[in-house]
Amino acid sequence: MSHHPTNTWSFPAEWAPHAATWLGWPHNTSDWPGRFGPIPWVFSEIVRHLSAGEIVRLLVQDAAHEAKARNILRRVGVDLQRVEFHRFPTDRGWTRDSGPMFVRSQSGDETAVVRFRFNAWAKYPNWKRDVKVPERAAKTLKKKLLPVEHAGRPVVLEGGSIDVNGSGTILTTEECLLDPKVQVRNPGFTAKDYESVFAGHLGARNTIWLGKGIAGDDTHGHVDDLCRFVDRTTIVLAMEHRSSDDNYRPLRENKERLQSAMLEDGTRPTVVELPMPSPVIFDGQRLPASYANFYIANAAVLIPTFNDPNDRKALGILSELITDRPVVGIHAVDLVWGLGTLHCLTQQEPNPRG
């Protein structure tokens, strides 16, 4: 059984007030081969919107990289008082998956870094720097580091593979966590093993298992491209209505699963469909373009857009569901060539109280 800490910690919902957002300033040109040019400018737009409502903790490689970032941020009018630079070298910039994940104590008066291991989605060799980021973050902020072990070994888990409502329910996919052969994060783990980890370390005693993720997803099924909570009882689910599209069947199957799913209190969630953009293809490769990869920050909800007629629909649906902060589209056609967009790049640090 996994060890249940006495002071139980839980992973708050993304819409709960943030102390900060963590983001890695882009540097690895192989993440966006041949299209790196516009990427820092897209990031500066993200920082501009985030910094209006919270501190942005920006990971940079070194002094020279920090100077580049400062220069671009200054040019787009970001208040640099709202940006904190942390010189933690990284391999890649996917802070949702390799960055610090924060849990809050039951009393609500402290936050800590919950330490999952990162192994580059059980797919790439370069993760030796990324894996150290949570530890460095905890040390810098003088917060507890809570290593996650189960069945006597460290647990590998990426932030993009889960989504929570903050009240005890967590969403994830079988494709990402339970595939016995492809990108296996924790060999031999069963659904029960994961449920025990979610209950013991994230305060989520109720798991909703979805099936497959979307086409083009390099992570093999991250839920944050697919299905997200927007409040305690409402879930948005990406849906594809073109029957010839690769996403048509898996997304329908996920809808069927959600129709019989239960929240932590035994009630049924409200499920709202989010459209999919037309397939985004570059160099013959299908990219994981999805409106579900939005990020809920203090001052705005940032939603990836793809020069697509459904951009407006997606923005409309989300602005009707999330009414306490503006919904802002961020052009993500260049970003998604890196095989991820806004949610994949960000990680929230909750306020201790809130």
What does this structure look like?
This protein is an alpha/beta fold. It has one domain (9-350): L-arginine/glycine Amidinotransferase, Chain A, CATH 3.75.10. It is 25% helix and 25% strand. It has ten helices and 21 strands. The chain has helices spanning 39-51, 63-75, 95-98, 120-123, 133-141, 174-178, 191-202, 248-259, 309-321, 342-345; strands spanning 9-10, 18-24, 55-60, 83-87, 101-105, 111-115, 145-147, 149-150, 153-154, 163-164, 169-173, 206-210, 227-229, 234-239, 270-275, 280-282, 285-287, 295-296, 301-305, 327-331, 346-350. It has a four-stranded mixed beta sheet with strand order 1-5-6-7, sandwiched between helices. It has a four-stranded mixed beta sheet with strand order 4-3-2-21. The protein is globular, with a radius of gyration of 19 Å. The two termini are 31 Å apart.
Write the layout of secondary structure elements.
Blueprint: E1 9-10, E2 18-24, H1 39-51, E3 55-60, H2 63-75, E4 83-87, H3 95-98, E5 101-105, E6 111-115, H4 120-123, H5 133-141, E7 145-147, E8 149-150, E9 153-154, E10 163-164, E11 169-173, H6 174-178, H7 191-202, E12 206-210, E13 227-229, E14 234-239, H8 248-259, E15 270-275, E16 280-282, E17 285-287, E18 295-296, E19 301-305, H9 309-321, E20 327-331, H10 342-345, E21 346-350
Parallel strand pairs: 2-3, 3-4, 6-7, 11-12, 14-15, 19-20
Antiparallel strand pairs: 1-5, 2-21, 5-6, 8-9, 10-11, 13-14, 16-17, 18-19
